[in-house]
Structure formats: structure tokens, C-alpha cells
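Case study 2.
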Amino acid sequence: MSVTADDVAIVQRFAKLRNIDYPLLSDKDRDVINAFGLFNDRFPEGSRYRGTAIPMVVVVNADGIVTRTYNGHGYTQDHEIATIVNNALEAVDGPKSQ
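Prediction:
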């Protein structure tokens, strides 16, 4: 899932334009962004980009605890996401035998 502080209409247009088929969360009040420490303070006060979510993959366990984060732009290819998912599962279940 992707999270943004943009309103629903903007998120829907963006998803349609980019042919995105995974969930996008409109977090206008930044509750999720703040809860997971994704608040982007790299932009100055007054900038429309200040407070936008930092591009990140967050792995949360069944207890709601963040166990791993992957920061930055990227992680957009299927094999990258598959690696993240496999690493998260191995952390819970142990390595798969080959």
C-alpha cells in the first residue's frame, strides 16, 4: 500500500494516470504518516511538499510493530517487492529450505 497526504480525488487521478493497481491511502490528516514516522521535513515550512510521506516500504508484524523499513525512491519492481516480502516472512518463519 502507498500512503500520501493528498486528498482522495488526487490519489485516484494519480493511480489512473500511472495504472497503479495496488492500494493507495489518502491520509489527509497525516495520522498514519505521523504514526509511522514518515513525515518528510526535508522541505522548508510553507512548501507544499513539507510533510509528504517519505518514500518507504514499512514492514509491520502481526502485533503492529514496525520490524523493518526500506527508505527512498525505488522498490517499484516486482522482484524488489518479492525480496522484501520473502525477507519479512523469513524473519517470522525462518529461512526456507531450498
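The chain has three helices and four strands.
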